[in-house]
């Protein structure tokens, strides 16, 4: 049997954890399985590398930044290979070029185009444990690219698809997929199974367990995979595509702490679409948006990722008085709280409970978005935590939160 595993940064943060993960890998290998293992950078290595880049340049070259950041995963893969060799097991580390992982050329947010698995297969045929760098690829010019923060999940799913793996396991610092963050809510409940669509919505709304593109790939290629703890022996969560859309009403509650609200006043009506196209051209993703039309001018408010806040102000400032006459107002100290679930489309109680909780807790909503599958609100971070706890409790009491759960609960 061929097993693809992925270990996140917290799972390999130090020597002790590397040896712990190595023991797990060894146990599966010694059962006569072929092992392909994807590694993330250790702990906060990526953040430390970004800080080092910032010490040299306030606007580092994207090519050189990718070359720097890719070293984090290379370090993890090599150290894991050493740990396995210390255990007397055959192992070899491969970077993206050696593993045949080819990507587009967008530095910092590249996408995997194809994988040539010949080298990987050759090594597993020699009964070697193959350790592969996550988060990176090689473009058509032979340049190193990175796939975006958290994209080692995507590397693992892509490899599982390319290798037709029998089993794919994502090891992380939590025990599976929960109805909300178990690190901040002791009443969070763990799923036994969850569908691609549901976890995709949760990931895109700020749930940090999985990279959303990894779920898109899994759904596209039908890769079933599990999410489990690297340190605690517990029942994992299986992600698959067999659950009916109405088996759950609310899938979960997420809070993205990296949200920013941007408001532009006195936008000339004929230039609203021009402003939107300007943001799209510069790859600034907009989430919640409100648009108010007046007799002579419009106003826009929308949410973006906090990392794009400085960029958007610089970009829009270049066109002040050309497209709009008002001020650019930003608020970076916000969180995006989202209630996600297919039941929002047909259960009118959900929106009513949402507003009831916000009124009872005295929480100010800066922006609000309601669709058939989610309700999202921009709120202050401390209020997001309070609202999440209150909503989770209320939805549980109402019996509309994730009825199909792991027997372990949490």
What are the key terms here?
410 residues; Carbamate kinase; VC0802-like; 2 domains; eight-stranded mixed sheet; globular
Topology (SSEs and partners):
Elements: E1 2-7, H1 15-29, E2 34-39, H2 45-56, H3 62-86, E3 91-94, H4 96-99, E4 101-103, E5 112-115, H5 118-125, E6 129-133, E7 136-138, E8 144-146, H6 152-162, E9 167-172, E10 193-195, H7 196-204, H8 212-221, E11 225-229, E12 237-240, E13 252-267, H9 272-281, E14 289-293, E15 298-305, H10 309-317, E16 328-340, H11 349-361, E17 367-370, E18 374-379, H12 381-397
Parallel strand pairs: 1-2, 1-9, 2-6, 3-6, 9-11, 10-12
Antiparallel strand pairs: 4-5, 7-8, 11-12, 13-15, 13-16, 14-15, 16-18, 17-18
What does this structure look like?
The chain is of the alpha/beta class and 410 residues long. The protein folds into two domains: 2-173, Carbamate kinase (3-Layer(aba) Sandwich); 252-397, VC0802-like. Helix content is 35%, strand content 25%. It is built from twelve helices and 18 strands. The protein has helices spanning 15-29, 45-56, 62-86, 96-99, 118-125, 152-162, 196-204, 212-221, 272-281, 309-317, 349-361, 381-397; strands at residues 2-7, 34-39, 91-94, 101-103, 112-115, 129-133, 136-138, 144-146, 167-172, 193-195, 225-229, 237-240, 252-267, 289-293, 298-305, 328-340, 367-370, 374-379. The strands form four sheets. It has an eight-stranded mixed sheet, with helices on both faces. It has a six-stranded antiparallel sheet with strand order 14-15-13-16-18-17. It is globular.
